[in-house]
Amino acid sequence: MQVLMVASECAPFAKTGGLADVVGALPAALAHHGVEVQVLMPAYPALFPLLPLGEEVARFDDLPGGTGRLVRVISDGVPLLLFDAPQLFDRPGGLYVDENGQDWPDNDLRFGALSQAAARVCAGTIDGFQPDILHAHDWQAALVPVYLKMEGRSEPRSVLTIHNIAFQGRYGPQALGPLGLKRDWFHPEALEYHGDLSFLKGGLMFADRITTVSPTYAREILTPEFGMGLDGVLRARKAVLNGLLNGIDLNSWNPATDDNIARSYDARSLKRKAENRAAICDRMELDPLARGPLFCVISRLTQQKGLDALLNAVPHLVARGAQLAVLGAGEPELEAGFRQAAQDHSGSVGAFIGYDEPLSHLLQAGSDAILIPSRFEPCGLTQLYGLRYGTLPVVARTGGLADTVIDANVAAIAIKAATGFVFDDVSADGLAQVIDRVADAHADTRLWQSMQRAAMRHPVGWDDGAKGYADLYAAMVA
User: Could you point out which of 68, 94, 275, 434 has its C-alpha 20 to 30 Å from the C-alpha of 116?
Assistant: First the structure.
């Protein structure tokens, strides 16, 4: 079976979050189920060195925003179709924002062009490649099913995966013309969303199947609390909505072979984690003699992630003799808050504002626990990395966090099944309570090591998720 996967990012080539990790790992996992995937993504500047190594397989002169071409290349084992349109993607800053953190004003054209190029591939533009399934990811690719339906195409069948419904690609109605969208589809039963065009709503209305990245999140987004205004659309299409749990790349994230950490280890050599903790203390200017639990945070610094509540709980965390290492960037007030916390609690709190992939691996390897107090979380990957590294996840009971972590309650501890700590109240008081639970458990060495081993046994790879997607694809073309 041939699948065209369309996304705005793919690890290790371009990444801002978990979307890239999923798109980078899923094709290899699907190959074990007889599914051949080609990933269509923009050629950002970091990918320019790959372009001369590939083969131009298509050229377009009339896309939104101008011309573009597709270059086929295989890199890091991933078959890529690079959408080369320098006028849209050759620019400084981030994938979606400029150097000042502001959205590029032509993001509608940038990702409209990506979607239209994908639709033309679906129509047979590339010799010898006719996908059976179009799999679009998030709002940046959500117009592909729309373009297919505009052309009256029933094949290939289309899947749209929601990684985070909070990001919807919303633009004024003036975008319809440049994007080549039907003006008579600008109504509430199609593309219109409160007077605007919504890329994501269009995809939700016209995709043949909709998936999201955990079973719990699939249920949550049917409610006003989590649906971000699209819960009505999703309830209307509930019959074609599935929640398939994400996995992680077990080769890239393996404490026994990880080149990014100070000392490799496995479930039988957990004492070696201490050398990684020492490396964290050196890097983050933490007291190496502290004996309480070392918590880490590896996250976008946003209120969605509950990090405002954590900031308010820092004094309690320090009072319990614990330490905190923060890696991330995001809302300026939270960046400033964690910098200040590191100054106010020197030796107990460290903050690296930005992103550093090797440091993220070291934090997973050397920390005792990873804090993820998200107010909503479609799936989350950092808790899966934590399980893999024996760094116990401390998570809010939402989305994929609830689906992947077994709370250390009395029953779970009794049967040695507990893999972390799950709590409900995302507030400073709620976090203080769960920090107390973690600190008490950490003081019991036998209990802590039993939980670490249970965490490291927990399946976190793509086996189940890839089979779920392969079965979904097969059912769609049957």
Answer: 94
